[in-house]
Amino acid sequence: MPILSFADSDTIYVGDLALVFGYPFGRESSMSLGIVSRAGRSYADSASFDFIQTDAGAYAGGSGGPLLNRQGNVIGMITMASERGNMGFATPINAIRKVLPRLVNGEKFTWGWLGVQLSDISLEQAKALGLHPVKGVVIRSVLPGQPAARGGIQKQDVILAVNENNVDSPRDVLRMVGGLEAGRVVRLTIIRKGRTMQLSVPLGTKPESAKASEG
To answer: At CA 13, angle to CA 9 and CA 19, rounded to 5?
Structure first.
């Protein structure tokens, strides 16, 4: 049977034409046309990613459907959609390609966990540390006995980068850590009391009692 070819989702740009195929509301298949509103990205050494955003119609029932470029090649898979159907979010196909062979073989994944609570850095904190422009994420607390505590991370440390990828929000850190498997070593660039440091921390497994805001 004919199949769709995969494109390189790291080469798309805002404004590129995008097409969505799906089964809105469980009815017959449909196609919607729009543009890429946000390009998203994948990361070379993990399964983490930023969503591709499109204004091509994506409705309930569209999840799992392909997002195509103008050549008809797959650049992503629709994962979420707005209630009005005027905004869709797709997982980049490059991120899917990394895990697809293992999923086909029936392998299961255990994603990484640090054991910290995070918050955005304030303007006052950034100014005191000389961070211009404002960047980084503050460790609000370190959960006892978890990988972060064992790896030497301390409360009030400021994370600047995860595996050399700069971070600007707690969501960035959670996404990057959550895209690495338990047991992998994550490299953190931090500032502690004005001093820049590198820490290597083996990731653990998220306890069942952990809150959604912890990572």
So the answer is: 70
Nearest partner of 191 among 140, 156, 146, judged by Cα: 156
CB 13 within 8 A of CB 52: no
What letter would DSSP give residue 83?
Answer: T
Q: What is the DSSP letter of 213?
A: T
Classify residue 59 by its DSSP letter. Answer: -
Q: How far apart are CA 5 and CA 90, in angstroms?
A: 17
Phi-psi region of 95 (alpha: psi -120 to 50; beta: other; left: phi over 0): alpha
pLDDT (tens digit per residue) in 136-187: 899 999 999 999 999 999 999 999 999 988 998 998 898 889 889 899 999 9
The total number of residues written for the chain in this structure:
215
